């Protein structure tokens, strides 16, 4: 376990852009239809990509962590997200329903076992899926570990990250009256699930922009445009707040750490930015202590974003290593 700090010229970059060779919408047992796509080599080693949030979406850059000549990469937008339908829907939207969707997608694609790749909330979902279906996972590649604890949520949405990004925090506070700022998640949840459309959209953009402003060591100036786009922001904020107010629908606190023994036989890589403010390194450190067999690499000049050069390098090297299993 070491902090990596090397020149950009010595680091691996993303693979070339690639278009899906197949895509579609998968029906579920509910109102949801799940958008999915397959990229790379149809006969390649299968990998599943889990996006962040909850409430995020896949994007073309996520396809590029995998050698397209050797991997068959499967990506999907989780319930209510991205191109999945209906947008921003909370009905039947839980961690366990997403795990059912993953299994439904695996069967639809004819995959026996796959490498599961996920960052931030994607790491949470990857770990929960692997614990539930360890026989279907041949490797885990994780970034920005998030265990969905109250400590993590309070750090990011009440007090902690606010001390590092006070300028961005002011924008996060702005939609909420002073009298309700003692429980910011609760105040946001009331508005994001309420009937006042203007307040809902204002809060969605403010909630999403807060994460966008803090994902990179470069600060708010590096925020991806999508976090300020109303349609993306609404799904992102509503679904994320819904999951967080329900503790991710996990059965008990520290459920992942308590059940990690079920997956310690699975080859696992953890790539963590030293200066990750969204999902601080303490969670990755706790996972590594509970899962000593995992390979953990701390990137010494990176925050949370998967696009930071050191994070890209670590993830690409991990996908190459997983090919050898």
Summarize the structure.
The chain has ten helices and nine strands. The protein is of the alpha/beta class and 325 residues long.
How would you portray this structure in words?
- With 325 residues, the protein is α/β, with parallel strands linked by helices.
- The protein folds into two domains: 2-149 and 249-322, 3-Layer(aba) Sandwich (Rossmann fold); 150-246, no CATH class.
- Helices cover 35% and strands 16% of the residues.
- It has helices at 95-108, 121-132, 150-157, 166-173, 184-192, 197-214, 230-245, 255-259, 281-290, 309-322, and strands spanning 2-4, 22-27, 33-40, 45-50, 71-76, 114-119, 137-143, 268-273, 295-299.
- Strands 1-9-8-7-6-4-5-3-2 form a nine-stranded mixed β-sheet, with helices on both faces.
- Strand 2 (22-27) and strand 3 form a beta hairpin.
- The mean pLDDT is 95.
Number of strands: 9
Major sheet: size, sense and barrel closure?
Answer: 9 strands, mixed
Elements, N to C (H/E): EEEEEHEHEHHHHHHEHEH
Architecture of the largest domain, CATH level 2? 3-Layer(aba) Sandwich
What kind of assembly state do the chains in view correspond to? Answer: single chain
Total discrete domains? 2
Rg over C-alpha atoms, rounded to the nearest angstrom = 19 Å
Task: Examine the coordinates and then state which fold CATH places here, giving the name of the CATH topology of the largest domain.
Answer: Rossmann fold
Inertia-based shape: globular
Judged by helices, strands and strand pairing, the structural class is alpha/beta
Tally the helices: what do you get?
10
Roughly what percent helix? Answer: 25-40%
| CATH H-level homologous superfamily name of the largest domain | Alpha/Beta hydrolase fold, catalytic domain
Strand content: 15-25%
- Main-sheet strand order equals 1-9-8-7-6-4-5-3-2
Mean pLDDT reading: 95
């Amino acid at each position: 376990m070491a902090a990596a700090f090397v020149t950009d010229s010595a680091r691996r970059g993303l693979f070339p852009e690639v278009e899906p060779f197949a895509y579609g919408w998968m029906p579920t047992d509910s109102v949801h239809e799940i958008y999915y796509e397959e990229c790379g080599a149809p006969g390649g080693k299968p990998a599943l990509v889990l996006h962040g949030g909850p409430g995020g979406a896949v994007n073309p850059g996520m396809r590029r962590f995998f050698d397209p000549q050797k991997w068959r990469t499967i990506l999907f937008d989780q319930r209510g997200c991205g191109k999945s339908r209906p947008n921003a829907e909370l009905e039947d939207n839980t961690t366990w329903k997403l795990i059912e969707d993953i299994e439904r997608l695996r069967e639809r694609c004819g995959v026996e076992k796959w490498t599961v790749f996920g960052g931030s909330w994607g790491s949470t979902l990857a770990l929960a899926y692997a614990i539930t279906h360890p026989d279907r996972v041949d490797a885990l590649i994780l970034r920005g570990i998030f265990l969905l604890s109250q400590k993590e949520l309070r750090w990011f949405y009440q007090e902690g990250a606010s001390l590092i990004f006070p300028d961005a925090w002011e924008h996060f506070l702005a939609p909420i009256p002073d009298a309700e700022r003692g429980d910011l998640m609760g105040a946001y949840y009331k508005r994001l699930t309420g009937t006042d459309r203007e307040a809902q959209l204002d809060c969605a953009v403010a909630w999403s922009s807060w994460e966008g402003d803090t994902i990179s060591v470069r600060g708010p100036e590096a925020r991806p445009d999508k976090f300020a786009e109303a349609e993306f922001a609404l799904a992102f904020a509503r679904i994320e707040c819904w999951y967080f107010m329900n503790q991710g629908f996990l059965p008990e606190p520290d459920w992942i750490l308590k059940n990690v023994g079920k997956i310690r036989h699975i080859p696992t890589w953890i790539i963590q930015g030293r200066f990750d403010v969204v999902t601080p390194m303490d969670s990755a450190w706790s996972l590594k202590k509970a899962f000593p067999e995992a390979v953990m690499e701390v990137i010494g000049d990176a925050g949370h974003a998967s696009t930071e050069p050191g994070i890209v390098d670590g993830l690409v090297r991990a996908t190459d290593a997983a090919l050898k299993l």
